[in-house]
Specification:
Strand 2 and strand 3 form a beta hairpin. The chain has a 3-stranded antiparallel β-sheet. A two-stranded antiparallel sheet has the order 4-5. It is α+β, with helices and mostly antiparallel strands and 106 residues long. It is 36% helix and 35% strand. The protein has one domain. The two termini are 26 Å apart. It contains 2 helices and 5 strands.
Protein backbone atom coordinates (compact mmCIF):
# COMPACT_ATOMS: atom_id res chain seq x y z
CA UNK A 1 0.00 0.00 0.00
CA UNK A 2 2.81 2.43 0.87
CA UNK A 3 4.48 1.71 -2.48
CA UNK A 4 1.21 2.58 -4.24
CA UNK A 5 1.18 5.96 -2.51
CA UNK A 6 4.85 6.80 -3.05
CA UNK A 7 5.29 5.70 -6.65
CA UNK A 8 3.46 5.60 -9.95
CA UNK A 9 3.89 2.78 -12.47
CA UNK A 10 2.67 2.71 -16.05
CA UNK A 11 3.10 -0.45 -18.11
CA UNK A 12 2.17 -0.70 -21.79
CA UNK A 13 1.52 -4.16 -23.21
CA UNK A 14 0.78 -5.50 -26.67
CA UNK A 15 -0.97 -8.73 -27.63
CA UNK A 16 -1.92 -10.52 -30.82
CA UNK A 17 -5.51 -10.77 -29.60
CA UNK A 18 -7.48 -9.33 -26.68
CA UNK A 19 -9.49 -12.52 -26.24
CA UNK A 20 -8.80 -14.64 -23.16
CA UNK A 21 -6.34 -12.17 -21.66
CA UNK A 22 -6.38 -11.88 -17.89
CA UNK A 23 -4.31 -9.51 -15.78
CA UNK A 24 -2.69 -10.95 -12.64
CA UNK A 25 -2.50 -8.14 -10.06
CA UNK A 26 -0.09 -10.12 -7.87
CA UNK A 27 2.56 -10.47 -10.58
CA UNK A 28 1.54 -7.24 -12.35
CA UNK A 29 1.49 -9.05 -15.69
CA UNK A 30 -0.66 -10.80 -18.25
CA UNK A 31 1.52 -13.90 -18.26
CA UNK A 32 2.48 -15.14 -21.70
CA UNK A 33 -0.62 -13.76 -23.45
CA UNK A 34 0.77 -10.20 -23.71
CA UNK A 35 4.19 -8.61 -24.04
CA UNK A 36 5.45 -5.71 -21.94
CA UNK A 37 6.58 -3.06 -24.43
CA UNK A 38 7.14 0.07 -22.31
CA UNK A 39 7.45 0.76 -18.60
CA UNK A 40 7.69 3.91 -16.49
CA UNK A 41 8.05 4.21 -12.72
CA UNK A 42 7.96 7.63 -11.07
CA UNK A 43 9.00 7.91 -7.42
CA UNK A 44 7.57 10.49 -5.01
CA UNK A 45 10.83 12.48 -5.14
CA UNK A 46 10.67 12.67 -8.95
CA UNK A 47 13.15 9.90 -9.72
CA UNK A 48 12.05 8.08 -12.84
CA UNK A 49 12.80 4.74 -14.48
CA UNK A 50 11.86 4.22 -18.15
CA UNK A 51 11.91 1.16 -20.36
CA UNK A 52 11.68 2.43 -23.93
CA UNK A 53 10.32 0.22 -26.74
CA UNK A 54 12.67 -0.70 -29.55
CA UNK A 55 11.94 -1.95 -33.02
CA UNK A 56 14.33 -3.55 -35.42
CA UNK A 57 15.09 -1.49 -38.48
CA UNK A 58 17.14 -1.96 -41.60
CA UNK A 59 19.22 0.94 -42.85
CA UNK A 60 20.66 1.14 -46.33
CA UNK A 61 24.28 2.20 -46.49
CA UNK A 62 25.90 2.12 -49.94
CA UNK A 63 23.69 -0.75 -51.08
CA UNK A 64 24.53 -2.71 -47.91
CA UNK A 65 21.77 -3.41 -45.40
CA UNK A 66 22.64 -2.67 -41.81
CA UNK A 67 20.25 -3.84 -39.13
CA UNK A 68 19.92 -2.18 -35.78
CA UNK A 69 17.45 -1.03 -33.19
CA UNK A 70 15.49 2.19 -33.14
CA UNK A 71 12.84 3.57 -30.82
CA UNK A 72 9.27 2.57 -31.68
CA UNK A 73 8.03 6.17 -31.80
CA UNK A 74 4.30 5.39 -32.13
CA UNK A 75 4.26 3.01 -29.17
CA UNK A 76 6.43 5.38 -27.13
CA UNK A 77 4.00 8.27 -27.83
CA UNK A 78 1.04 6.17 -26.66
CA UNK A 79 2.94 5.21 -23.51
CA UNK A 80 3.94 8.83 -22.77
CA UNK A 81 0.30 9.90 -23.12
CA UNK A 82 -0.72 7.22 -20.61
CA UNK A 83 2.01 8.36 -18.18
CA UNK A 84 0.75 11.96 -18.40
CA UNK A 85 -2.82 10.80 -17.73
CA UNK A 86 -1.67 8.71 -14.76
CA UNK A 87 0.23 11.68 -13.32
CA UNK A 88 -2.84 13.91 -13.70
CA UNK A 89 -4.98 11.30 -11.96
CA UNK A 90 -2.43 10.91 -9.17
CA UNK A 91 -2.35 14.69 -8.63
CA UNK A 92 -6.15 14.83 -8.36
CA UNK A 93 -6.08 11.94 -5.88
CA UNK A 94 -3.43 13.59 -3.70
CA UNK A 95 -5.36 16.90 -3.73
CA UNK A 96 -8.53 15.10 -2.66
CA UNK A 97 -6.66 13.37 0.17
CA UNK A 98 -5.25 16.71 1.31
CA UNK A 99 -8.74 18.25 1.35
CA UNK A 100 -10.13 15.35 3.39
CA UNK A 101 -7.21 15.56 5.81
CA UNK A 102 -7.76 19.31 6.13
CA UNK A 103 -11.42 18.86 7.07
CA UNK A 104 -10.58 16.16 9.62
CA UNK A 105 -8.00 18.36 11.34
CA UNK A 106 -10.42 21.29 11.80
Amino acid sequence: VVDDLTSLEVMTYTADSLENIEYDAKTKSFGESARLKAYTRVELDGDMINLIPERLQVLQDNEEAISGAGVDEKLWHIHQTMVAQAQTGRLAFVKALAEVAGTLIK
